Amino acid sequence: MYQTGHTIEQTLDQIHKHDLVLPAIQREFVWGPEKICRLFDSLMQGFPVGTFLYWKVAPENSAKFNFYGFMREYHERDNVHCPSLPEMPNTALTAVLDGQQRLTALNVGLRGSMTWKLPRLWWNNPKAFPKRHLYLDLLWNAGEDEDEGTEYRFSFRRGNEPRRRKNSSGNLVEWWFRLRDILSMEDGPPMLDWVNDPALERSSLSLAYKTLNRLHRVVRQDHLVAYYEERRQTLDDVVQIFIRMNDGGTPLSHSDLLLSIAVAQWTKHDAREEIHELVDALNRIGLGFSFSKDLVLKAGLMLSDIGSVGFKVDNFNRKNMAVLEEKWTSIKSALTLTVQLIAGFGFNRATLTAHNAILPIAYYLYRSKRTESFLSHSEHEDDRQRIRGWLIRSLLKRGVWGSGLDTLLTALRKVIREDAADGFPAARLGEEMARRGRELVFNDEEVEELADTEYRSQRVFALLSLIFPFVDPGKLFHVDHIFPAAKFTKRKLRDAHVPEGKIEEYRERANRLGNLQLLPGAVNTEKSAAMPAEWLARAYPDEGRRRSHARNHLLGTVPEKMTGFVEFYKARRKCLVEEIKRLLGGEGSG
User: Fold this and answer.
1) Under 8 Å between Cβ of 27 and 97
2) What pLDDT digit, counting tens, does each position of 418-432 carry?
């Protein structure tokens, strides 16, 4: 049944009072700041933004289902999930089946905030996450916008950013208005008084008032939120409507589909809450990871021994969902143990380059019923090293975790099920992968490529940790330049008496594996931009320990001056090639 619309303000009031809620089958909020700004621009221009689909839940059924509130204060690290709501028995509710992203964008823009990470800062650094609110530039001239079709300038800005900017003549040319303030502003004379600023030219005053008045109409006066109302009360019917309606909106992934059906069919657990809580818990282990619900759901299929591992509709039947729920507690424990194990190997969000690589490990730990003692007990050391060696090989080999992944994972699951009685079957897994064109043996050309791995490569940590296994991966280690990167500017190389014709050769090698090592974070900070010979003498006054460090890190003879760098680099690269061949040239058993 079609219903004439509410204003945006009225709709936000419904959201605030939980008269308008989200059913558990809904996905998370996925829009970014640019898309939110685009939505507000479309509203301001009077473009249609689509109707909404609401589900009218009868009071006698409201306690049968799980519901969630809308996201308001989005935080990329600390608050990415919609808040769960308590049971609301005998309450008439309206749940949103289609339009959640648009309504949440309005809620965030007009009543909330967005917080996302700044580049080049650690995820555990509070300064990496400044809060931003949505602003509108009242003085924006649409002709200045490079984005074709955009008429209004919206932007998420920090509270300490200036709201006004004047030109050299002292006239205002930027005036940022915080959107949430429109909810408490009256139109007409009070609004005109508000924009009447001495620093504004007459034409700018007219533009500012016109823009602000338009915003007021869009948010508080025009009835823009029109919707259809669905009154059927069975969740199975609602799931089918949800899937069909969302085909045309933000893409509904297979994992969204699986989660929706799991929510509808699990009887003992709240599937949405369980899966989201597990994703968050896994991502907090060690230095942090960036797993998604897709990985957790695929792990559920794999560890439950459900058909193939693929996100296929046939795998989502009621019987399979019952199996997944029954085994969920054990699956959750096995995944947690797996991530703790790889964090112990030194991996984190920056260095684990293929998330699906952990699934065979998780299946092995699940099948063999391993507990936390597996992480540290000496009797499991050989098994841990087989897992570590296999994992690193698979991450270093290009193309292993690409296309055809579901078929590969299903085959590896069969190998583990049949051949894991004596420990992790790394050799058998390697054979099965080779049979499928993904062998873990590296030829001479691949070894040479690895020996030239760059500092910024996602593979560099895995490679260095394989070559130098004595490094304690349980601690924070940095990839360090042996000869400091700061010494390779053209000016500093000339100052170091490097011949002009050799400068580019030096610079090309500065960031390659031959000039890289793993050092504990604190040690690397202390080393800073010191030359290697100088730092070694300071860090290891005892000559025996100094030689031992040089030998362990394949440093050879370390020159005191930059002019000896290329000779040092070539000698160390040769040693690295020999070591990589020794480690990766044989069978993939680790």
Assistant:
1) no
2) 999 899 999 999 999
pTM for the complete prediction? 0.67
Q: Which two tokens stand for residue 434?
A: 């080779």
The three-class DSSP label of residue 477 is strand
| 166 bridge partner residues | 172
Positive/negative CA dihedral, 305, 308, 311, 317? negative
Give, in order, the Cα–Cα distances in Å from 353 to each of 459, 554, 569, 579. Answer: 7, 26, 27, 23
- Under 8 Å CB-to-CB from 84, ≥6 apart: which residues? 66, 67, 68, 69, 270, 273
> What CA–CA distance (Å, rounded) separates 182 from 186?
8
SS3 label, residue 185: coil
Measured CA to CA, the distance from residue 451 to residue 109 in angstroms comes to 49
Radius of gyration of the chain measured on its C-alpha atoms: 29
In the chain, the N- to C-terminal Cα span, in Å, equals: 63
Q: Alpha-carbon distance 218 to 9, whole Å? A: 9
- Compute the Cα dihedral for 293, 295, 296, 302 and give only its sign: positive
> Residue ranges of the alpha helices (H) in 50-170?
100-111
Burial of residue 108, with CB atoms counted within 10 A of its CB: 0-12 exposed, 13-18 middle, 19 or more buried: buried
| Six token digits for residue 35 | 């898309």
Tell me which residue of 226, 316, 190, 194 sits closest to 262, measured CA to CA: 316
For tokens 């940022």, what's the residue?
Answer: 176
Q: CA triplet 581, 582, 584: central angle to 5 degrees?
A: 60
Task: Give me the sign of the Cα torsion angle 348, 350, 355, 358.
Answer: negative
Q: Express each pLDDT in 28-61 by its tens digit.
A: 888 999 999 999 999 999 988 888 888 888 888 7
